[in-house]
Structures are given as structure tokens and as C-alpha cells.
Write a structure and sequence with these properties.
The protein is α+β, with helices and mostly antiparallel strands. It has five helices and ten strands, in the order ββαααααββββββββ.
């Protein structure tokens, strides 16, 4: 058996595709799993040109979501434009996109309680210090009415941080 996304013969593990029927998912390799959880290497994901046409709806949904995350690349936008999904499948694709609007600098979804790292030195207004690049912020809180903001503790102070300046750990 090979990876449902990249067709690698590496060891596989089950990946649950959120927002759909219970136990919906596919078998993927560690490389795909690691990239889904973090940074996407665009060249690795050219394999979506094949997996997006899978007869397995969970694989179609996962492929569509990954293409959305890669929309900065022309080839990914072209593949997204070619992909046709019925209304029910498209609703499944969109279900998690709406629920997880908070995304880090690489497009990885952020959730309540996640740990992030600052990717830039940030002067903290009113606190008199600069939060240094590489600082870990543990147990973040999502600002519900603004997907560009999260809250976290840095040097003992609770501050608001723009999501474009953090990377999920």
C-alpha cells in the first residue's frame, strides 16, 4: 500500500480528515503528515495533481484543502480551478476552513492552546520590552472576532500578537 497523497511506499499512518463523517480519512506517509502539520514544501505537493482525482472523497477533500494552502503558487491555483466537487464534498472542504480561520505565517491552522514561536523581533507597546525572535509562546488563546490576532504570555505579560509573526511548533 502507498501514501494516498504522494504515492510513497514509506510506512503509513491513518490521517483523519476533519469535518466529515466519523472515521473518514486516508493512509499517508510521515513526510505528508509532517508537512500538513507545519510548512508545506510546494514541490512535494505537485503530487496533488493525481490524488485530487481519487475516488475516495476524504482524499479529494484533503487534496482540495492542501491546494488552498498552496494558492500562492500558479500550478496549485490551476489545479484548484480544474477540481470539481459536488456540493456535499465542497461543504466538507469548507467546514474546517471556516472553523480554523486563525493561521500562522506558513498557513498552518492555529487552535486554542497551541504553542508557537515568534519569527520576528516584536516591540511590545506599553510594556517597554521587545519580544525576541525565537521566543516560544505556550498555550495561546485565539481572539475570536479577529483571525489575525492571538494572545499569549511573553516575559510574564499577556500580549496580543499578529498571526503573521508566529510559526506553529
Amino acid at each position: 500500500m502507498s501514501c494516498s497523497l504522494c504515492s510513497s511506499d514509506a510506512p503509513l499512518r491513518f490521517f483523519a480528515v476533519e469535518g466529515g463523517p466519523d472515521e473518514a480519512g486516508c493512509q499517508i506517509c510521515d513526510t505528508c503528515q509532517t508537512q500538513i502539520d507545519g510548512d508545506l514544501d510546494a514541490n512535494h505537493w505537485r503530487c496533488l495533481a493525481g490524488s485530487m482525482w481519487s475516488e475516495d472523497v476524504a482524499i479529494q477533500v484533503l487534496s482540495a484543502r492542501l491546494l488552498k494552502r498552496l494558492e500562492d503558487h500558479d500550478w496549485a491555483r490551476d489545479l484548484s480551478d480544474q477540481l470539481w466537487l459536488d456540493e456535499e464534498t465542497q461543504a466538507w472542504v469548507d467546514a474546517v476552513a471556516v472553523a480554523s480561520e486563525h493561521r500562522d505565517s506558513n498557513g498552518a491552522p492555529l487552535a486554542q492552546g497551541d504553542n508557537v514561536v515568534l519569527i520576528k523581533d516584536l516591540p511590545v507597546k506599553g510594556a517597554g520590552f521587545t519580544a525576541k525572535r525565537g521566543t516560544a509562546v505556550r498555550g495561546i488563546s485565539l481572539v475570536q472576532d479577529n483571525p489575525d490576532h492571538i494572545e499569549g504570555r511573553v516575559e510574564g505579560q499577556r500580549i496580543v500578537i499578529l498571526t503573521k509573526f508566529v510559526k506553529k511548533k
